[in-house]
Design brief:
Number of strands: 0
Shape: elongated
Radius of gyration: 19 Å
Strand content: under 5%
Distance between the termini: 42 Å
Structural class: mainly alpha
Length: about 80
């Protein structure tokens, strides 16, 4: 007996996920605005708040990076 399985093509949602991450996670809508928000939130980066400030700036760099999304758009 032969079993027939239907193979479906995997839909690539990378572009949609990247755009969603940018819209939701990039505070202020741009890298400069996000970094300004972190600078305002942590005006004095000292020992106790260094980790939180570093995380804030790192999140801005990661979440506000549109270069990967733009590459995805140009390859479509």
């Amino acid at each position: 007996m032969f079993f027939s399985t239907s193979c479906s093509e995997r839909k690539d949602t990378t572009l949609q996920r990247n755009l969603f991450t940018f819209l939701v996670s990039c505070t202020g809508g741009s890298l400069d605005a996000c970094n300004s928000g972190c600078a305002a939130q942590y005006p004095d980066i000292t020992g106790p708040n260094y980790t939180a400030a570093s995380t804030c700036f790192s999140n801005c760099t990661t979440n506000c990076n549109l270069s990967g999304t733009l590459l995805l758009l140009t390859n479509k």
